[in-house]
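F.,

This is the one I mentioned.
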């Protein structure tokens, strides 16, 4: 332990930097994105993708009524289609967690909430942890935290590690997804380093983005993060989840991510317990594709509720 500016720091030793071959990563991601998926496999993949969605609303205008409507859609994405599963979770701001928890009671859909000064990640640690504890007490099953990118980019890795580790503890029984905000990390090397740091600190999931910064999720960045998860599993036998978020808008995009996860990590990760898609509009496009598979033609977007 050490003391820096009055703050107790761990004796954390950051992982060694490993250079990422950007050309190889981008070529591999592009190749996986061109895989042809036949009709039966496509249908199965679309249904699986629905079960992996964290249906999200993170707007300043969010209201209890809007959240209840979103929860209803999460539980039953398309009325009349009992074969379509519920989404993995509904993700909201902390003040609306209790509303979501009540609306989703008994459904199996998780309540996720963003915390720790979302989306900047900058602020007093004690206040961040208090927000996390209050949010879990209100009923959140999962917390999506953001790292302090300023601290990370300044090389203060011990601070980032300690804040994640403290947040894991504050979460208690809730799972923690650690958002790297990869669009601000600038390079694949830094994404790789931050992914390993978050895993070392106890993250249950690592997540690309808040959705508030561009670029958000991309296939190459996701591949880099998945490879860190794979290496960690080979080294320790411990699984860590993955959540790309931001900019995933179409069923075609969702299937590309599922192919990448399956090819990189295998069948064990093909579950909402270990893979999620953070999205607000993706679900509607998947529902349209599922109806096309059933009816042979597209129905209108106007027949689907927004969200």
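My design for it:
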């Amino acid at each position: 332990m050490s003391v820096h500016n009055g703050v107790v720091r761990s004796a954390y030793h950051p992982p060694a930097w490993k250079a990422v071959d950007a050309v190889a990563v981008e070529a591999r991601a592009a190749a996986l994105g061109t895989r042809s998926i036949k009709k039966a496999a496509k249908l199965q993949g679309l249904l699986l993708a629905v079960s992996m969605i964290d249906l999200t609303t993170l707007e300043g205008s969010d209201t209890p009524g809007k959240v209840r409507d979103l929860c209803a859609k999460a539980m039953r994405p398309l009325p009349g289609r009992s074969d379509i599963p519920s989404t993995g979770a509904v993700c909201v701001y902390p003040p609306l967690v209790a509303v979501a928890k009540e609306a989703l009671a008994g459904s199996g859909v998780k309540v996720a909430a963003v915390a720790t000064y979302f989306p900047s990640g900058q602020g007093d640690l004690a206040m961040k942890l208090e927000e996390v504890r209050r949010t879990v007490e209100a009923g959140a099953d999962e917390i999506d935290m953001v790292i302090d990118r300023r601290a990370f980019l300044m090389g203060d890795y011990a601070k980032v590690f300690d804040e994640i580790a403290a947040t894991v503890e504050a979460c208690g029984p809730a799972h923690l997804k650690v958002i790297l905000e990869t669009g601000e990390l600038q390079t694949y090397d830094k994404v790789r380093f931050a992914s390993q740091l978050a895993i070392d600190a106890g993250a249950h999931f690592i997540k690309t983005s808040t959705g508030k910064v561009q670029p958000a999720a991309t296939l190459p960045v996701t591949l880099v993060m998945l490879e860190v998860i794979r290496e960690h599993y080979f080294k320790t036998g411990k699984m860590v989840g993955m959540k790309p978020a931001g900019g995933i808008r179409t069923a075609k995009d969702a299937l590309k991510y599922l192919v990448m996860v399956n090819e990189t990590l295998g069948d064990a990760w093909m579950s909402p317990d270990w893979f999620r898609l953070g999205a607000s509009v993706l679900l509607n496009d998947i529902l349209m594709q599922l109806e096309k598979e059933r009816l042979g033609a597209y129905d209108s977007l106007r027949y689907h509720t927004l969200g």
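The chain has one domain: 17-303.

Talk soon.
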